[in-house]
Specification:
Length: 218
Protein backbone atom coordinates (compact mmCIF):
# COMPACT_ATOMS: atom_id res chain seq x y z
CA UNK A 1 0.00 0.00 0.00
CA UNK A 2 1.44 3.40 -0.90
CA UNK A 3 2.30 5.87 1.85
CA UNK A 4 1.32 9.51 1.64
CA UNK A 5 3.70 10.70 4.37
CA UNK A 6 7.48 10.59 4.65
CA UNK A 7 9.46 8.48 7.09
CA UNK A 8 12.75 9.38 8.71
CA UNK A 9 14.44 6.00 8.36
CA UNK A 10 17.58 7.33 10.09
CA UNK A 11 15.61 7.38 13.36
CA UNK A 12 13.36 4.37 12.77
CA UNK A 13 15.58 1.72 14.36
CA UNK A 14 15.39 0.90 18.04
CA UNK A 15 18.13 -0.43 20.28
CA UNK A 16 17.56 -3.64 22.31
CA UNK A 17 16.45 -1.41 25.20
CA UNK A 18 13.68 0.08 23.05
CA UNK A 19 15.24 3.53 22.82
CA UNK A 20 15.89 5.26 19.49
CA UNK A 21 19.23 4.23 18.03
CA UNK A 22 21.62 6.62 16.36
CA UNK A 23 24.87 5.39 14.93
CA UNK A 24 26.67 8.59 15.88
CA UNK A 25 25.77 7.94 19.54
CA UNK A 26 27.32 4.48 19.41
CA UNK A 27 30.72 5.41 20.81
CA UNK A 28 32.97 3.67 23.35
CA UNK A 29 32.10 4.29 26.98
CA UNK A 30 34.30 6.65 28.94
CA UNK A 31 36.09 5.41 32.05
CA UNK A 32 33.51 7.05 34.33
CA UNK A 33 30.54 5.75 32.33
CA UNK A 34 31.90 2.22 32.55
CA UNK A 35 32.60 2.67 36.26
CA UNK A 36 29.04 3.91 36.91
CA UNK A 37 27.53 0.91 35.12
CA UNK A 38 29.79 -1.53 36.98
CA UNK A 39 29.04 -0.04 40.41
CA UNK A 40 25.31 0.19 39.71
CA UNK A 41 25.10 -3.42 38.55
CA UNK A 42 27.14 -4.59 41.54
CA UNK A 43 24.85 -2.78 44.00
CA UNK A 44 21.80 -4.36 42.37
CA UNK A 45 23.45 -7.81 42.37
CA UNK A 46 24.31 -7.51 46.07
CA UNK A 47 20.77 -6.47 46.95
CA UNK A 48 21.79 -3.02 48.17
CA UNK A 49 19.29 -1.37 45.82
CA UNK A 50 16.97 -2.23 42.95
CA UNK A 51 16.57 -0.89 39.41
CA UNK A 52 13.19 0.56 40.45
CA UNK A 53 14.76 2.45 43.35
CA UNK A 54 17.49 3.83 41.09
CA UNK A 55 14.91 4.96 38.51
CA UNK A 56 12.80 6.60 41.23
CA UNK A 57 15.81 8.51 42.54
CA UNK A 58 16.72 9.72 39.04
CA UNK A 59 13.16 10.93 38.52
CA UNK A 60 13.26 12.74 41.88
CA UNK A 61 16.50 14.45 40.89
CA UNK A 62 15.04 15.49 37.54
CA UNK A 63 12.10 17.15 39.34
CA UNK A 64 14.38 19.45 41.33
CA UNK A 65 14.56 22.99 40.05
CA UNK A 66 15.45 26.53 41.12
CA UNK A 67 11.80 26.93 42.14
CA UNK A 68 12.62 24.92 45.28
CA UNK A 69 15.37 27.31 46.29
CA UNK A 70 13.15 30.27 45.42
CA UNK A 71 10.53 29.01 47.87
CA UNK A 72 13.17 28.91 50.60
CA UNK A 73 14.32 32.46 49.85
CA UNK A 74 10.76 33.80 49.74
CA UNK A 75 10.04 32.27 53.14
CA UNK A 76 13.18 33.92 54.52
CA UNK A 77 11.99 37.27 53.16
CA UNK A 78 8.64 37.08 54.96
CA UNK A 79 9.50 35.12 58.11
CA UNK A 80 12.24 36.61 60.28
CA UNK A 81 12.42 33.50 62.48
CA UNK A 82 12.89 31.23 59.45
CA UNK A 83 15.49 33.61 58.05
CA UNK A 84 17.51 33.34 61.27
CA UNK A 85 17.27 29.54 61.21
CA UNK A 86 18.25 29.47 57.52
CA UNK A 87 21.39 31.50 58.13
CA UNK A 88 22.26 29.35 61.14
CA UNK A 89 21.62 25.95 59.51
CA UNK A 90 20.38 26.05 55.93
CA UNK A 91 20.11 22.27 55.67
CA UNK A 92 17.72 22.00 58.63
CA UNK A 93 15.73 25.08 57.61
CA UNK A 94 15.24 23.74 54.07
CA UNK A 95 14.00 20.44 55.50
CA UNK A 96 11.37 22.42 57.41
CA UNK A 97 9.82 23.22 54.04
CA UNK A 98 9.97 19.60 52.93
CA UNK A 99 13.07 19.74 50.75
CA UNK A 100 15.43 16.75 50.92
CA UNK A 101 18.92 18.19 51.27
CA UNK A 102 20.58 14.82 51.80
CA UNK A 103 23.73 14.56 53.89
CA UNK A 104 25.54 17.60 52.52
CA UNK A 105 25.98 20.76 54.58
CA UNK A 106 24.11 23.64 53.03
CA UNK A 107 25.18 27.18 53.97
CA UNK A 108 23.04 30.23 53.25
CA UNK A 109 24.78 33.57 52.79
CA UNK A 110 22.77 36.77 52.69
CA UNK A 111 23.28 39.74 50.43
CA UNK A 112 22.99 43.14 52.09
CA UNK A 113 23.47 46.74 51.04
CA UNK A 114 27.17 46.43 51.96
CA UNK A 115 27.99 42.83 50.96
CA UNK A 116 27.32 40.78 47.83
CA UNK A 117 27.97 37.03 47.80
CA UNK A 118 28.77 34.86 44.80
CA UNK A 119 29.29 31.09 44.68
CA UNK A 120 31.62 28.91 42.66
CA UNK A 121 33.43 25.58 42.84
CA UNK A 122 37.06 25.98 41.85
CA UNK A 123 37.70 22.22 41.91
CA UNK A 124 34.88 20.97 39.71
CA UNK A 125 31.17 21.83 39.74
CA UNK A 126 29.85 21.23 43.28
CA UNK A 127 26.39 22.79 43.39
CA UNK A 128 23.28 22.55 45.64
CA UNK A 129 21.46 20.32 43.16
CA UNK A 130 19.04 19.08 45.84
CA UNK A 131 17.63 22.60 46.04
CA UNK A 132 18.45 24.24 42.69
CA UNK A 133 18.45 21.34 40.23
CA UNK A 134 21.18 20.96 37.64
CA UNK A 135 23.87 23.66 37.42
CA UNK A 136 24.07 25.83 34.30
CA UNK A 137 26.84 25.02 31.85
CA UNK A 138 28.71 28.24 32.54
CA UNK A 139 28.95 27.38 36.25
CA UNK A 140 30.95 24.28 35.31
CA UNK A 141 33.22 26.08 32.86
CA UNK A 142 36.90 26.58 33.64
CA UNK A 143 36.62 30.25 32.69
CA UNK A 144 33.99 31.00 35.33
CA UNK A 145 35.61 28.87 38.03
CA UNK A 146 38.99 30.51 37.61
CA UNK A 147 37.99 34.08 36.88
CA UNK A 148 35.33 34.65 39.52
CA UNK A 149 37.85 34.22 42.33
CA UNK A 150 40.38 36.55 40.67
CA UNK A 151 38.17 39.26 39.26
CA UNK A 152 34.66 38.82 40.68
CA UNK A 153 33.49 42.33 39.86
CA UNK A 154 34.44 41.94 36.23
CA UNK A 155 32.62 38.60 36.01
CA UNK A 156 29.54 40.02 37.73
CA UNK A 157 29.58 42.95 35.33
CA UNK A 158 29.45 40.49 32.42
CA UNK A 159 26.32 39.03 33.99
CA UNK A 160 24.82 42.52 34.16
CA UNK A 161 25.43 43.05 37.88
CA UNK A 162 27.06 46.42 38.51
CA UNK A 163 27.85 46.93 42.18
CA UNK A 164 28.77 50.20 43.89
CA UNK A 165 32.40 50.49 44.94
CA UNK A 166 31.42 50.46 48.60
CA UNK A 167 29.90 46.98 48.36
CA UNK A 168 32.18 44.11 49.40
CA UNK A 169 32.15 41.06 47.13
CA UNK A 170 32.65 37.71 48.86
CA UNK A 171 33.34 34.59 46.80
CA UNK A 172 32.43 31.25 48.36
CA UNK A 173 34.07 28.04 47.17
CA UNK A 174 31.83 24.96 47.34
CA UNK A 175 33.21 21.53 48.18
CA UNK A 176 32.05 17.93 47.84
CA UNK A 177 30.29 18.03 51.22
CA UNK A 178 29.53 21.75 51.61
CA UNK A 179 27.36 23.83 49.27
CA UNK A 180 26.15 27.43 49.32
CA UNK A 181 22.96 29.23 48.43
CA UNK A 182 22.75 33.02 48.23
CA UNK A 183 19.77 34.80 49.75
CA UNK A 184 19.44 37.82 47.44
CA UNK A 185 18.24 41.17 48.68
CA UNK A 186 14.48 41.55 48.64
CA UNK A 187 13.49 44.01 45.90
CA UNK A 188 11.97 47.30 46.93
CA UNK A 189 8.26 47.77 46.44
CA UNK A 190 7.34 44.15 47.25
CA UNK A 191 5.72 44.72 50.64
CA UNK A 192 2.25 43.80 49.41
CA UNK A 193 3.23 40.62 47.52
CA UNK A 194 2.37 37.13 48.69
CA UNK A 195 5.04 34.57 49.41
CA UNK A 196 4.28 32.82 46.12
CA UNK A 197 4.57 36.10 44.22
CA UNK A 198 7.88 36.82 45.92
CA UNK A 199 9.23 33.38 44.97
CA UNK A 200 8.58 34.23 41.31
CA UNK A 201 11.08 37.09 41.64
CA UNK A 202 13.90 34.81 42.80
CA UNK A 203 16.03 33.63 39.88
CA UNK A 204 18.55 30.82 39.73
CA UNK A 205 21.38 33.28 39.10
CA UNK A 206 20.37 35.40 42.09
CA UNK A 207 20.81 32.32 44.31
CA UNK A 208 24.30 31.78 42.84
CA UNK A 209 25.12 35.45 43.19
CA UNK A 210 25.62 36.22 39.51
CA UNK A 211 22.23 37.91 39.35
CA UNK A 212 19.76 39.93 41.38
CA UNK A 213 16.17 39.22 42.29
CA UNK A 214 13.70 40.56 39.75
CA UNK A 215 11.79 43.78 40.37
CA UNK A 216 8.09 43.43 41.12
CA UNK A 217 5.69 43.55 38.18
CA UNK A 218 4.36 46.99 37.35
Amino acid sequence: MPHDHPHDHAHAHLSPSGHPYRKDDDTPLSYWQAMEIAVRELLVEKGVTTPAEIAAQIEAMDRRSPADGAAVVARAWVDEGFRARLLADASAASRELGFDIGTLRLIAVENTDTCHNVVTCTLCSCYPRNLLGLPPDWYKSRAYRSRVVREPRAVLREFGVELPEGVTVRVHDSTADMRYIVVPRRPEGTEGLTEEQLAALVTRDSMIGTGLALPPPV
